[in-house]
Design goal:
The complex is a heterodimer of chains A (114) and B (114). Chain A has 114 residues and is mainly beta. Chain A has no helices and eleven strands. Helices cover 0% and strands 53% of the residues of chain B.
């Protein structure tokens, strides 16, 4: 299984851009990189997913270098409500269904202060 | 779209009893669902992969006779914790896949065993 490593915690202030980097040195050719956000006592919420280069949606950008051994989640202009745990995941494709099994790492606890 | 619900949202049961948790995909069909467990301030731990119409695949170390999973339809998977003990108290979260890579999580069920 491709293991992911990310910082345990990060601090930021409102209005700043936050970049969380994740390393996944053993990523397989057909693996995608997905980021989730989780608030206390809630299920994880999908943020963004990518395979290579750059992906952007209404809430974040995901940067993936050519070797795909790392990825960076970029949150523009964070607010207090962005305080949460952010998980970087590399899916394991299940041969029988083609679907991806997700194995969660430790995640990054982001604290946004006023 | 892509909403996953869980019922109940929280449950308290006595030691030795069994409790059933339901996971439903409300607006899509999910041939594959996943069950996770999360202890306080820890990451999600994958327990099992549930495929509609077939037996669940359990992760190493998860007792299949204790955590019974039934995926009877394309929109419903159930997790039954049998003969619950206080150490089974945890936050149980399910997820459902709409496509090969899109995985949506339920809101979670807080189980407390007294």
């Amino acid at each position: 299984l491709a293991k992911t490593t990310q910082p345990i915690s990060m601090d930021s202030y409102e209005g700043q851009e936050v970049n969380i980097t994740c390393s996944h040195n053993n990523i397989a050719t057909n693996d995608y990189i997905t980021w989730y956000q989780q608030f206390p006592s809630q299920g994880p919420r999908f943020i963004i997913q990518g395979y290579k280069t750059k992906v952007t949606n209404e809430v974040a950008s995901l940067f993936i270098p050519a070797d795909r051994k790392s990825s960076t989640l970029s949150l523009p202009r964070v607010s207090l409500s962005d305080t949460a745990v952010y998980y970087c995941l590399v899916g394991v494709t299940l041969m029988n269904t083609g679907f991806q099994k997700l194995v969660f790492g430790t995640g990054t606890r982001l604290l946004v202060s006023p | 779209g892509a909403v996953v619900s869980q019922h109940p949202s929280w449950v308290i049961c006595k030691s030795g009893t069994s409790v059933k948790i339901e996971c439903r995909s409300l607006d899509f069909q999910a041939t594959t669902m996943f069950w996770y467990r999360q202890f306080p301030k820890q990451s999600l731990m994958l327990m099992a992969t549930s495929n509609e119409g077939s037996k669940a695949t359990y992760e190493q170390g998860v007792e299949k006779d204790k955590f019974l999973i039934n995926h009877a339809s394309l929109t419903l998977s159930t997790l039954t914790v049998t003969s619950a003990h206080p150490e089974d108290s945890s936050f149980y979260i399910c997820s459902a896949t709409e496509g090969p890579r899109e995985q949506y999580f339920g809101p979670g069920t807080r189980l407390t065993v007294t």
